[in-house]
Design a protein that fits this description.
alpha+beta; four-stranded antiparallel sheet; 3 helices; 24% strand; rod-shaped
Length: 142
C-alpha cells in the first residue's frame, strides 16, 4: 500500500509543477503581448507625428514671412488659438475635446531667417511624440 501512495504523491507533485510551469509561461507570454501592443501603438503615433511634422516643414520651407508660413499651414489644417491644430486619429481637424493629437507651430522671423518649430503631442500628454525645427533663409530664397 505504501508503494502506491508514494507514486500517487509523486504524480500529484509532478502535475503541480507542470501547472506551475505553464502558469508562469502564460504570464510571461501575456506580458510580452502587452509590451508588443504598447510598442505597436507608440510606433503608429511616431509614424503619424513624423508625417504631420514633415508636411508642416515642407509647407513652410518656401515661405518668405511669418504670415505666409501660417497661411501655407492653414491650407493643410485649421488652426485654433493661433498656432495649435487639433487632430483626430485619422489626422483630420477636430475639436479640442475630441482630439487624439495636437500639433503646435511656432513660426518666428529674425532678420534674414524664418524659423519654424513644430511639436506633435498626444492629447493630454506633456512630452512630445516628435518635434522638428526648420529654418528658411529669406534673403537667399528671394
Amino acid at each position: 500500500m505504501n508503494k502506491h501512495a508514494g507514486s500517487g504523491t509523486l504524480y500529484l507533485l509532478e502535475l503541480i509543477f507542470s501547472i506551475l510551469f505553464f502558469a508562469i509561461s502564460a504570464a510571461v507570454c501575456l506580458n510580452i503581448f502587452a509590451l508588443a501592443h504598447t510598442m505597436s501603438k507608440e510606433s503608429v503615433d511616431l509614424q503619424r507625428a513624423v508625417s504631420v511634422v514633415s508636411d508642416a516643414c515642407e509647407a513652410v520651407s518656401t515661405a518668405q514671412s511669418e504670415e505666409e508660413a501660417m497661411q501655407r499651414l492653414s491650407l493643410l489644417w485649421s488652426f485654433k488659438d493661433g498656432n495649435t491644430v487639433y487632430l483626430s486619429a485619422d489626422l483630420k481637424n477636430t475639436t479640442p475635446e475630441e482630439a487624439d493629437y495636437i500639433l503646435i507651430a511656432d513660426v518666428n522671423r529674425t532678420d534674414e531667417m524664418l524659423t519654424a518649430n513644430f511639436g506633435f503631442y498626444r492629447n493630454g500628454a506633456e512630452d512630445d511624440i516628435y518635434s522638428q525645427q526648420t529654418k528658411v533663409n529669406i534673403k537667399a530664397a528671394r
